[in-house]
Amino acid sequence: MAIIEMPDWVVPSAAEPFLRDFGAVLTPFLGGPEQRINRLGTRFGLRVTLPPMPTRDKALIVQSRLLRAREDRLRMEWPQPDFDTGSPGAPLVSAAVTSGVALQLKGMAAGYQVKEGQVLAITHGGRRYVHIFSADGTVAGGGTLSASIWPMLRTPLSLNDVVEIAAPKIEGMVSPGDELSWQISVDRLASFNFTLSEAA
Fold first, then answer.
1. In 10 A of CB 3, how many CB atoms?
2. Average pLDDT of the segment spanning 53-79
3. Burial class (CB in 10 A: 0-12, 13-18, 19+), 108
4. 0.70 exceeded by the pTM?
5. DSSP character for 78?
6. Taking the CA of residue 47 as centre, how many other CA atoms within 13 Å lie in the half-sphere pointing to its CB?
7. 186 and 127 both lie in a single domain
């Protein structure tokens, strides 16, 4: 399966992040206490609106990539407006891990600080997985960080898996289960709205 990349000049005019939660709340019908059941698989998505663009050139490229990504996967940067990610170094997973909400990192810039809510993307087996840091953290002098993340890992990670912090990207299916359409106006501008959802 190929990965379709949006050009760098494609910058959303609006993006609506959403969460796909596969857990459930059990509510007893006789009024007992409710119980939350957490399940693996919680993941992210974006509802994206692109600014109108000329149909002769840029719109054709976007149209082509969105249509091809219906059968493959689309990859684009996760928007974090007005948040300066700084220079985190070259983060890598420093130890194999099979599950949980803790991540050991290496190769980072000493003194770099991650912020609660900051987005990161982990690449394993040719696929990206979006998470957030669930607590602030400061990289040690040796470039290591024991990070708390959310949601739970949904795939085992290997030593030296790449972690994107400076420019994390989301990768997934375009408008899964829905039709894909766009508008072409009389002034020859095309407008695109689509949903990008992590598939794993």
1. 14
2. 89
3. buried
4. yes
5. P
6. 5
7. no
